[in-house]
Amino acid sequence: MIQSPARLCSLAVLATGLFAGIASAQTDRLYPNTGEAVIGKIKSIDKDKIVMIAGGKEQEFLTSDVRRLQLQEEPQELERGRVLIMDSQYDQAFDELKKLNIEAISRDVVKADASYYLVLSQGEMALSGQGDLNNATKDVLAFVTKHGDSWHFYSAIRLLGSLAKAIGNYEKAVTFYQLLAKAPSRELKIESVYQIGMLKRLQKDLAGAKTDLSKVAALTPGTPGEKRLQTLAKAGLAVITAEQGQGDQAVKMVNELIATLNPTDTQTAATIYNALGASYAATGKDEDALIAYMHTQLMYSMHASEHVDALKELIELWTKVGKPDRAAQFRGELQQRYPGLSG
Amino acid sequence: MPNLTPIYLSTYSPARYVLMLRLSSTVRSLSTVAPIRRERSFWRTACWLFVAFIGLASVNSRQVHAEGEPAAVFIKQLRAAGYYDLAIGYLERLDQYPGVDSAFMTSVPLEKAQTYIDSAIAARSADQRNELFQDAEEQLQTFLKNHPENPRASEARAQLGKLRMFRASQFMTGEVDEDKRRKARELYQAAADTFDAIIEDLKKKIAELQGAKIDAKKEPEKAALRDSYYGEFMMAKHNAGESRLMAAETFVDPAKDGKKQLEEALAIYTDLSQRYGKYVQGLSAFYTRGKVEKTLGKRDLAFESFTRMLELDDIDELRDARFGSATEIIDLLLTGEKVDYAEAIKIGEPLQRSLRPNEQRTQIAQDLRVALARAFLAQSKDEANVKPNERKRALSDARKLLIAAKKVSGTHDEITAKLLAEVGIDADSSEEVATMPTADDPKSFADALASARIIFQTVQDLTEQVQSLTEQGGNDDEIKSLEESLSSARQTGIVILRRGLSMVHSDTEAVQINEGRQFLAFLLLQEKYFRDSFVVGNFLAQFAPGTEVGLSGGIIALNSAQQIISAEGTGNEYWVNRVKELGDYLVEKWPNDPKAASAKGVAIIMALDQNDLVEAKRMIDAIPPGIEQAKFQRVLGQFYWNDSLKLRQDKQDAEAAKMNEAAASELTKGLEQIQGGDVGEDTMQAALILAKIRLRQDNPNEAVKVMDHPQYGPITLIKTLDTPKADMLFDLYRTELQAVVGQMTSATGDQEKLLARASQSIDKMQENAKDEAGQKRLIDTFRGLAFDIQEQIKNAPLARQKQLIDAFNVFLSRISSIAKDDTTLLWVGQTMLGMAESAIPEGQVKADGQAAELLKTAISTFETLKQKPNPSDSIPFMLGKSLRLQGEYSAALKEFRAILTAKPTMIDAQEEAALTYEQWAAVLPAAYKAEAYRSALSGDKQKIIWGWGKISTMTQQSPAFRERFFVARYHVALCRFQQGQAANDAKITAQAERDITGLVGLYPDMGGPEQFRQFDSLLKKIQIAIGKNPSGLPEPPAPAPANANAKAPR
Questions:
Q1: What's the gap in Å between the CA of A108 and the closest CA on chain B?
Q2: How confident is the model at residue A48 (pLDDT cuts 50, 70, 90)?
Q3: H/E element holding B515?
Q4: Which of B964, B965, B1014 to mutate to test the interface with A (most CBs of A within 10 A)?
Q5: Residue with the larger pLDDT of the pair A299 and B123
Q6: What is the per-residue pLDDT for B1046?
């Protein structure tokens, strides 16, 4: 008889394994962006869609419509790490996920999920100046290469775009953001246009940027996410208007956005007040610009990228209004809090 | 004690009331002529209290969480961060911002007033402060004039009243002349008028609500509003009384010239204490009432009021009022016709001792100390009634209290200095009064250093207070407040030292400069400016090598780098390298200092954390031999051990053995340096690992030696640990058992002694495995041990096998006879079964000789266990298996059928049952053989036993059962072949051939080389039987690359 001597010792485990395979089906949970969680078994996953079998029927979801998955057999560290990420506590999430031996995870979809959240937390930390941007980029690229069919594919691409932008490699960032347009989701296609428009502004191609952002601003939004992109595009257009020397017009444009400010979307609010600051600064109203940027400093500093932008402007403005001590204080904060982004 | 769940709490926090009392006492004290030099510290204390006093006014401000400009939140943030100028600028251009709530637009003057008040409190000059307070008052009056009926009007009035009181108190600070007294009185009177107006307004509102007869359950909002009015009403009464008392105290002789104000105040307080006795305001009014009575010269009434205050329960909200009352009573007792110092001490001493850490530095506590010191001084002077040694003690107690009071600056300074002089201490020439320096520019480096020393002391004091309060489970707000003060002190220190260090010149002494740098590095580290503290600390270490201060700087730098790495991870090469360099440097420059050696440890830990064991070993070897080196050798040994486990897991046995050697070497070196003294759990853990390595190296005698070692052996020393962890104990006794069992297999050991020790180890393991998880661990351990024994027997030469089986048999039989629990019995049975399997020669299916003996014991053990309630499934399974190996096939099938009736999918039992049919068929008479093989193939008639056919079908789909599938397919072919042969049916035999050739089409490798070989051999036999050329299986393909098509998630 062909029998492993270890068989005796592993009796219970194998017996249990068999029961699990034959007697009960596995349970996965899919949380869409809106609506109730769907409980069932994942049949297949790729970068565009997730197919679940729930109640004996197949249901298909676009990956962009899915908030998160909770998977059978996933380790606790992954569950905890994911919750921390949802709460933007990337450093703690990173510590939690680091504990995982990802290679030892047997289920591929769980392995991909864990790998993604690990590189996401690492990337977000780097974007907030708490880590190395190049290392993070390398690891996110490795994720995309290894798990090219992950449902997180486009989120990872977006992250790569942000990292490239933060490094200053705008050409590479454009390449990544262009990939977003290949997603079946309308929102991601719009985001692709928006991000490329914003990159053009950074590259001083104001006309090109205006064309792209105008397209987004003119759309009829179909989802809250699309509405958000539209608002951001309008804020971007205001900044371009200010940069083209029409500060008053820019202030008017931003005020329209403040009138309908969503108090729960703090990141968009930070972008809007930075746009207001830029608009006032363009007209030489330094104290008004200071007050605008101070909104970001005092109320929205949890968003690293926007906060860094505001801090850099505030350092200049405090000097201009004759308060070098405050400029020094803000410079200190920039260096202390964002050591990787203060240059 | 009356009910204290009051209305009051719904609107006002208790802290606010306490702060009001503090304010009143502080403000009152300002009326005394205090030296000008103290004005600043008084002012700061008063301001701080004032912030808390009126700061709550903005709590009611409407928070804007709708679309549009979030003005209310932003203005609050601007003020909190101290951007008052920007806040005023923002309020002035608020109309530029869209979507601001109209109610908020209306209250812009109120917001401006609050901003001016906050700004005034932060102002540095008195003129600036006055101007800002005036601006605030103007804004409040504008608001009240334009919006008298606004919902925030009563809040504005209260703020105006308090502001006036506060401004009045300013006139009574410093040198006070008649003009200032008059101005102060006018303002106090104006404040009283404001509070009276509030009282009248609230009276009406409360009356209206009372008329409405509100049912709190049905109309909770109205009930809350009524409660809120009620609370505001009592507070306003308090303030009205307070402002009158203060107005009276602006006179040089308040009892004579301020009688009218005092009488009015007394009426208010009497009303409060009599009618509102179930609220904190009412209860604490006894204290203020007593004070007014005392000022009016009504000593007996005052005594009674203070006594009633002291008779109340000691609750947090009333503590200050109780301390104040005690101080006043002591004063009455010491200034009466008959001086009763004994009663004064009896009242004051217990209260003074009860001061909490957060109360130690309050003004009211210093007043109590001074009053109590006066009582002790009176006792020390009473030669007629007090013995000399008691008088001496009283004098000493008075001195202690005065010295304690002197450490805190306040209104008691003058009297404290005077009393200290009485006891022979010159307050001015002795230690400086520890007032906190401010962050103003120092005059010189020496000035900065002197300030830094005071700050350093304050930081230490505050740190102790925070620790003490935290240990006592103190109030979170109090702890937070102390922590804020601590941070503020450190920040001030940093500013002063940075400015001071920029003033050093060629004559400045290097020692002092380094002291300043040391303070700075320490404060930066404490404030978590790690990069800055690294730079300063490293500079010190580099420029003051060999000195204490240099080492201190080095350690601060190292600590800072460690913190940075801990925040950013060891991936940051720059900081990891800094730590290594610094560690090397410190050991080089302070070679004999243990602190430097332990600092080096940080670098080693970093290297270990990065798993750079080569670098870690280099650094460890560089440390001079001694405790530090030994400690790290033990740690490194454990890292090597962990690596060896990983290598073993990856089947790299040779590498794992080498790593074990390295681990044993480090652990031995680290353990051998122990020369007695306390040995902790870490050291014992290291010794335990060394014992495990010795076991791995098949050297149980050495393992036992390590565990029994007198200096570090965990078995010898475990009793010295207070509370060793259960996990560690379990692991220890498990290792001991393994080692002892190992010793038993050698012919030389004293078997009886070893047996006794083994059974003792089992007992101890059981003691530490009582919960469910522990039981599981125990079972796993026994299983592991059983497997080890089985492996040992299997791999031993034949002669040794017999010897081993005998030794284990004796051991297990003895354990079985003394075991009281099922787990151990199960283990015994299982081990016996395992040993029997190992003792059956390959190719033989039925046990005989020694193996049969072992099975006999195993069967008897399993049968005993099976009779117990709720036996585990594994017991009938192992019984069935033992019976099969014993050749008792019918009995074995009975067991398996029973298991499978309840759990048909238990694959192990299905396999055993099919195998039992198959082996039984081999020994049955020819007439029954074919049918028996058919049963092995297709199961029994009841379909409880599947047979190999269904087993192979059920396992085919799951990758986890791949090996089982091929085993089942092999037996399908084998049984079919045997069935064909027994029935002499060529068709069936031919089918057996197709069973194999069909399979090879699907799985060319037939499940692996070993299975391939077995299938090939069987096929050839079949081919011969059916008269074919025995060609066997086609050549297996080359190993396939890793499976890359497993796309669908499993």
A1: 6
A2: very high
A3: helix B510-526
A4: B964
A5: A299
A6: 33
Chain A residues within an 8 Å CB radius of B86: 287, 290-291, 294
**A15 and B908 in contact by Cβ < 8 A?**
yes
Q: CB atoms < 10 A from the CB of B928, how many?
A: 12
> Cβ contacts (< 8 Å) between A135 and chain B: which residues?
571
Question: What is the model's pLDDT at position B25?
Answer: 32
Partner A, chain B 794-833, Cβ-Cβ below 8 Å: 794, 830, 833
Q: Go through chain A and tell me how many residues it has.
A: 343
Q: In chain A, which among 59-98 make CB contacts under 8 A with chain B?
A: 91
Chains A and B: how many Cβ contacts under 8 Å? Answer: 126
Tell me if B685 sits within 8 A of B728, measured CB to CB.
yes
| Distance between start and end Cα atoms, chain A | 71
Question: Is pLDDT above 90 for A50?
Answer: yes
> Hey, what are B135's tokens?
């601006």
Query: Of A295, A44, A178, nearest to B1047 (Cα)?
Result: A44
Contact between B341 and B375 under an 8 Å Cβ cutoff? The reply is yes
Q: Is B439 on the interface with A (CB under 8 A)?
A: no
User: DSSP readout, A19-79?
Assistant: HHHHT----EEEEESSS--EEEEEEEE-SSEEEEEETTEEEEEEGGGEEEEE-TT--HHHH
CA torsion, ordered B273, B278, B279, B284, to nearest 10 deg: 40
pLDDT digits (tens, 9 = 90+) for B218-258: 778 777 777 778 888 888 899 999 999 999 999 999 999 99
ipTM: 0.83
Q: Which amino acid is at B560?
A: S
Helical segments of chain A, H only: 11-22, 76-86, 90-98, 108-127, 133-146, 153-167, 170-180, 186-202, 206-218, 224-243, 247-259, 266-282, 286-299, 304-320, 324-337
Say if CB B1027 and CB B993 are below 8 A apart.
no
CB B755 within 8 A of CB B811: yes
Q: Which H helix or E strand runs over B719?
A: none
Do B329 and B284 form a contact (C-beta atoms < 8 A)?
no
Interchain contact B82–A (C-beta under 8 A): no
Reported confidence tier of residue B584, pLDDT bands at 50, 70, 90: confident
Question: By the CB < 8 Å criterion, does B93 face chain A?
Answer: yes
Q: Which residues lie across from A28 on neighbouring strands?
A: A40
Return d(Cα A151, Cα A144) in angstroms, integer.
Answer: 11
> pTM above the 0.80 mark?
no
Compare all CA atoms of chain A with the CA of B101 and give the residue at the minimum distance: A259
Phi, psi of A49 (to 5 degrees): -150, 160
- Judged by average pLDDT, the poorest of B27-41, B170-184, B986-1000 is B27-41
